[in-house]
Amino acid sequence: MVSVKAARTGAPKLDDEAAVRAWLGRLGRSVAVTAIPGDASSRRYFRVRTRNSSFICMKMQAFADVGEQLPFIQVQSHLSRLGVNVPQIIDLESKKGLILLADLGDETLLKRLERVSKKRDQLVWFKRAIDLVLNMQIVATRNTAPIDAYGLYFDEEKLMWEVGFTLAHFYNGALARNIPAKEQKVVESYFKLICKRLASQEWYFTHRDYHGRNVMVQGNDLYMIDFQDARLGCPQYDLASLLRDSYYQLEEEVVYELLDYYLRQKEKIEGAKENHREFTRVFDLMSIQRNFKAIGSFASFYMKRQDVRYLKFIGNTFENIRRNLLKFPELDELRCMLFRYYYF
């Protein structure tokens, strides 16, 4: 997504669109190119229409001639070979940072949910999203490949880095709250306990950013996008991203109904019983850490490029954290400190 500053000048949009037109023109395609909204990154997206077809062109920084070195292409190629629903790559131009993809349309899972008025229909769509990510987790964990994602981990160090990211960009940055060193150390010590437990779980291949905006709907089928940051971690990470989404609030009883669905499907596929109580406890802890990181991301978009669009989701995300912290009396001090410096 182009930055606020860049959007005002308009220059990057014109340059990027011209690059797309020039590249596709050299390939002998007569095309119509239209800029479309993208994600929260610096990548830009264009819909490319020919007489008989429609594609999506993703514009990023130039990458190595050997496309397999690009995380997006590595993960896409691997998941596609395993039969996971991901957008197909049609063509690429590494020196200009262009990747031509199959067009999955404009309807995300989040947009589809806007039209849902009945609980049973909501459950249908979330179960489909769970089926998609569960399939990815299991087949990609069983079938490894020589790609970077398998050397990256949601270990304690990485999870704690995400905690520090939020403390820096949200509390110290966006809120300009100078938490005394002694109290910040207490906050970090509680998160260290949480992250140690999360990192001790069995690791699966995880999407890392699996929520309603990163799932596309085509008919009754779902496709995952924005999977370039995949790594190994506990499966609850993707579930927390989906079921405790900052953009869409599910009632708590629905969250646990869907969590139970995930566990029953997982047991059926793997042929092994899960400790439902333990899995749920870890899921709630994972939700705390995952939502805390999301707040850091929203704040960083504002601090780094004055992008205010995501600040409105911080309140819902903090409420997710509050509800889950209340389930752990041993974390009361952490809850009080986080909210003391949030509400002022």
List keywords for this structure.
5-stranded antiparallel sheet, Aminoglycoside 3'-phosphotransferase, Chain: A, domain 2, Phosphorylase Kinase, domain 1, 52% helix, alpha+beta, 344 residues
Which secondary structure elements does this structure contain, and how are they paired or packed?
Layout: H1 4-9, H2 11-26, E1 32-36, E2 44-49, E3 54-59, H3 71-81, E4 89-93, E5 98-102, H4 109-114, H5 119-142, H6 156-174, H7 181-199, E6 204-206, E7 215-218, E8 221-224, E9 231-233, H8 236-243, H9 252-270, H10 276-305, H11 314-325, H12 332-340
Helix pairs in contact: 5-8, 5-9, 6-7, 6-10, 7-10, 7-12, 8-10, 10-11
Note down, in words, how this protein is organized:
With 344 residues, this protein is of the alpha+beta class. The protein folds into two domains: 4-102, Phosphorylase Kinase, domain 1; 109-340, Alpha-Beta Complex (Aminoglycoside 3'-phosphotransferase, Chain: A, domain 2). The chain is built from twelve helices and nine strands. Strands 1-2-3-5-4 form a five-stranded antiparallel beta sheet, with helices on both faces. Strands 6-9 form a two-stranded antiparallel ribbon. The longest helix has 30 residues, at 276-305. The two termini are 32 Å apart. The relative contact order is 0.11. The model is unreliable at 1-12 (pLDDT under 50).
Rg on CA atoms, Å: 21 Å
Largest sheet: 5 strands, antiparallel
* Global shape: globular
Give the strand tally. 9
The CATH architecture classification of the largest domain is: Alpha-Beta Complex
- In the CATH scheme, the class of the largest domain would be Alpha Beta
The CATH topology of the largest domain is Aminoglycoside 3'-phosphotransferase, Chain: A, domain 2
Distance between the first and last residues' Cα: 32 Å
For this structure, the quaternary state is single chain
| DSSP summary: helix tally | 12
Main sheet: which strands, in order across?
1-2-3-5-4
The level of helicity is 40-55%
Along the chain, the helix and strand elements come as: HHEEEHEEHHHHEEEEHHHHH
Q: Mean pLDDT, nearest integer?
A: 91
**Number of separate structural domains:** 2
Q: Pick out the low-confidence regions.
A: 1-12
